[in-house]
Design brief:
6-stranded mixed beta sheet, mainly beta, 7-stranded mixed beta sheet, 18 strands
Length: 278
């Protein structure tokens, strides 16, 4: 093992410590995370630029050329649409196959929005999102952006929002920063990692601790609605504690990403469409 790199660990900094030896594995890890971030940005740019155009406050749900670009102050899915959404766009002739960022079967399923009649169900699925640091803590929220891998846990990645006549509901992730330490003889915890110890001899040496890591993590799906308007998860939080993916405009009956691009909305009573619901 060259280093402790794992895209799902979400380590973003190697916190070198004075008086501790520098490990080659730590330098390898920095390089790998650099290229991971670069690759994710390149993929997102390719996936979202097909829909770039002049930003507009109001537009038809079929107008996919009026939004302000990705990388908003929140969490951007690496692709705007899932396999169903892209197949719909191709069938309608709205886009050509050259604007699909990968083979349809390889498009990740990240954002699943369904009109259920009285409620809108939002499920955010496992995979990469590019996110600004949004914890609600001013000393942590540094205005930097990182590729964050969300490991969805059943029961915490879905929100069902009650429809109403006015207002907006913002849906995203709660986010935390933590420090991960090399594990030693005391045993493992959620804040330790045995791979951070020296492994130059082919095994992790508990008496040769390496540097700590700074980790940013998505915890669960959250909304800005009060508990009475949310069902099936989606804990309500303040706006500045919500790393926002999308919003529901109840008055306009639209679902949009934070940059204004319509979200593909499936329906339990008929075919889906882009942005609107009944």
């Amino acid at each position: 093992m060259l280093d402790s790199f794992d895209d799902a660990k979400n380590y973003k900094y190697v916190a070198f410590r004075p008086g501790y030896p520098l490990q080659a594995a730590e330098l390898n890890e920095i390089q790998e995370y650099f290229y991971l971030e670069f690759s994710i940005i390149a993929f997102i740019t390719n996936a979202w630029n097909a829909y770039s155009g002049t930003p507009a406050a109001q537009f038809e749900e079929t107008d996919l050329q009026s939004y302000a670009g990705p990388f908003w102050d929140g969490a951007t899915p690496i692709v705007p649409y899932d396999q169903v959404g892209y197949n719909t766009l191709l069938a309608e002739g709205t886009i050509s196959s050259t604007t699909v960022p990968a083979q349809i079967s390889e498009i990740p399923q990240l954002v699943d929005v369904t009109d259920q009649g009285d409620t809108i169900r939002v499920e955010l699925k496992e995979g990469f999102y590019h996110a600004s640091v949004t914890t609600g803590n001013d000393t942590v929220d540094n205005n930097f952006r990182y590729a964050i891998y969300y490991e969805a846990i059943s029961g915490t990645n879905i929100a069902e929002i009650e429809k109403r006549d006015n207002g907006k509901t913002y849906v995203g992730f709660s986010m935390t920063q933590s420090y991960i330490s090399p594990s030693q003889f005391a045993g493992e915890t959620a804040l330790t990692d045995p791979s951070l110890n020296d492994n130059s001899s082919g095994f992790t040496n508990d008496v040769a601790a390496g540097a700590r890591r700074v980790k940013f993590n998505f915890n669960r799906v959250v909304t800005t609605d009060t508990p009475t308007g949310v069902f099936g998860g989606g804990s309500p939080v303040a706006y500045n504690q919500n790393c926002i993916v999308l919003y529901i405009d109840h008055e306009q009956k639209k679902v949009r990403y934070l940059n204004g691009l319509p979200v593909f909305v499936q329906s339990t009573s008929g075919p889906g469409g882009f942005g609107g619901y009944e």
